[in-house]
Each structure stands twice: as structure tokens, then as C-alpha cells.
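Project standup — Tuesday

K.O.: blocked on the structure for the chain from last sprint. Re-posting the sequence here as requested.
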Amino acid sequence: MHIHILGICGTFMGGLAVLARGAGHTVTGCDAGVYPPMSTQLEAQGIRLIEGYDAEQLNGLNADLFVIGNVVSRGNPLMEAILDRGLPYVSGPQWLGEHVLNGKWVLAVAGTHGKTTTSSMLTWLLEDAGLNPGFLIGGVPLNFGVSARLTDSSFFVIEADEYDTAFFDKRSKFVHYRPKTAVLNNLEFDHADIFPDLAAIETQFHHLIRTVPRIGRVVTNGREDALERVLTRGCWSEVERFGVQGGWETQPAEDGVPVDERFAVYHNAERVGVVEWQVQGEHNRMNALAAIAAARHVGVPPAQAARSLASFRNVKRRMEVRGSVDGVTVYDDFAHHPTAIATTVAGLRARVGRDNTRILAVLEPRSNTMKLGVMKQQLPASLADADLVFGYGAPSGRDALGWNLGEALGPLGNKAQAFDNFDALVKAVVHAARPGDQVLVMSNGGFGGVHQKLLDALSARGAQ
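H.V.: unblocked you, prediction finished:
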């Protein structure tokens, strides 16, 4: 079958394209922004890409089915032509559920934060146990180097996003996946462009719970009131909680050893394993508990899973060191929600300490929720543990903010600056940076390649 994917360069749709190609289909696709690295990855798979959504691309395409990404809306010229001609189309999540996940033991990881990291951990635990899982993850796990793969294994790990499915299907993507193992990491208000309030998101999570079979298992964060409300609306599966006494817990492995380096895993008050790894932060220990609990459901012993985490290499763009120049280290991180920003800053602070080591936070609030200004009042508190803050808001275009970033950062006083000029931002960061500083760049986009621009400017400064 020849499928043509609209919106193919998004992480989810690009991963879907790789899976479809692996299943033997002819795959082509189009997007408004066909550029590396996704375009390079797809073309290496033999997938032909078309720039834009011109309806003329239908001529001679002879596609059997059009798979529609949720970036496509009514008014899109290609979509309008598909509708006018009565051509067959389907959403990406529905196609995935029917053609890839059908018949698999699906392990789905949902939640506002930590989906990508936890999905990557879980996939690695199954891989290291010899289960050869397929997967589709909204990032690139460094243990695998790709965001998606198709195998002949019975197991498939998927990052289960609550964002809407398509312009013609406003249910969350994850209702199409029908997991046997469902991980609920946490639940906060997000996606303000789609959901009016937290209760609306809770309803979608309730719909997800309704799809888990009686023989399935829900692994849920016991600290989250929102998730408890979801479960009280109805749950027909076994439930295991993590992060709470009597469920899955972490404790120091031994006196004098930092828990960021080594911690013990307990289940039902019994010590079942010890994790030694290079990943920092309480949030990642919670992610690890969720992954270990989910892996146990498919037969991976907790002690073995804990040992496997020693070789987990994290995810690209999760506290990823992009380079170090003149004693200044530049990190790249995907954090964009205030909770994730606070957690990321806290994780770096725990790593580097407070003595003579400054954190320079460089932030681009460009998610749809942030652009709407819903979370702007939470920004100062999320950045309070940074020594200096440099915020950037694009002055125009689709990433432009609808609110004043400088005013929002005002409670931080003189340690925060806001910019609408990209070059001025880079210049200010480089001027402020001194040996020993940690420059933490946070954005859910490319941020204009600011990481390399900072490194280049620091190099040029050192050469003067």
C-alpha cells in the first residue's frame, strides 16, 4: 500500500512513517517545514518528501491512503482537495492502532511530564531483557539512536500523548492505542489551546483507563490527586501505585551515598533492587519506578530492571551537554512547562551544587500553552533557583508571545532579562558567562540553534 502522510516531519508522524516503511508500505509525505534532522532521517529510509501542502502534489501521486497529522486543519489546500475528491484518509493514531499496535502487548506511557524519558527507560529495560520491543517515542533515546522501530516482538512501547488526534477526531491520541500496560506519570493542566481546564484532561485520561482490559495493569503516580480522581471515575484493571508508601518506592541504598548515584527500589515494603546510574533528580527516580513496575508486568524481574538502568543513557535534549568552552558548559533541555522548568533547574543544581557554580537559564516559552500566557505567572517561581535568567520571545510569526515576557519575569528582579532580538540575547549571555558557569537552554523547539551560537561566540571571545 502507498500511504502519503500530511505533517510528516513532526516527531510522532515521522516515527509513524518509519514504522509504516518497516511494515513494507510505500511511504511519501509532505510538511510545511521539510528540514533536518527529520528530513534526513526519513530520506535515509527511502521516504520521498514534498515541501508544503500544495494540492498539485496529488497529480501522479496515486496514494492508496492519506494519513493526516494533527497539525493539518480545514483550509489546508491539500486537505481540501482530498475532501473534495472523496479520497480515503485516516488520522495517524488510528492508523497506528489498527496497523501496528493491533495484536501487540502495548505498554503506553501517559502524563504531563516525563513521558519521553519513562518510555525510553521502559523500552531499554525490555531490550536489555532480550524482549526486542518495538517502540514509538517522542524523542530520541540515546540507547537506540532512533525515535521509532518495528520488530517482530509481541511488545510495543509507545509514548501516549493526550493531545488531540486530528481536526476530525478531537479525542486524545492515546485512546487509539488500547494498552495492556498503562503508565500514568502525572497530570497537570497543559495544552491550553485544546483543553479549557484540568477537568477536561482528566476526562480524556478516564477514556484511556476505559480501554485497558481487566487483565491489564495501570501503573500510576500515587502522589497525584488528579490521577486519583481519574481512577475513582472507574477502573476495571489492576492498579499499582508508585511514589507512595506501600507501593513502589525509592530509599537511599546505603548511608553516605547520594541517592542521585545509587538508590534502592522497594515494592510492598520489600527491597527488590538497587539502581546505580548517571541520571539525576527526584523526577527521574519516579520515572524509574514507573518503568520498573511496567516492565515487571511483562515478566522482567525488578532486580534485573534496576541493574539495566545502569546502562540507560537518557534521551536526546534531556539535560544534554552540547559543549563546553572556556569553562562554560552549555546544556540543551526540552523543558517548557513551569513544572518541568523547575524540575530541570533543580536537577542541574543538585548536580553542580551551590558553591561558586552559577546556573544561567536561557528560556524560550514557545509551547502553545505558554504562548497563550496561561502559565506566565508561574514562570518566576520555576526559575527562582537559577542565578541569572535570559528569556526570549519572538517578536513576530507563529512563535510570537501574546504577552509581555519582561513583565512576567519582573518578580525575579535584576537577575532576569527579556529579549525579542535573538542576537542581543546571545550577546548578553556570552557577556555574562564566566568560567564555571552552567548555561541551561530550555525550549521545546530548535530555538534558532542558540546552543551552537553560544558556543561559537564563547570560542570567539576566548580567541580575542
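K.O.: great, moving the ticket to review. The first strand starts at residue 2 and ends at 6. The domain at 2-91 is CATH 3.40.50.720 (Rossmann fold).
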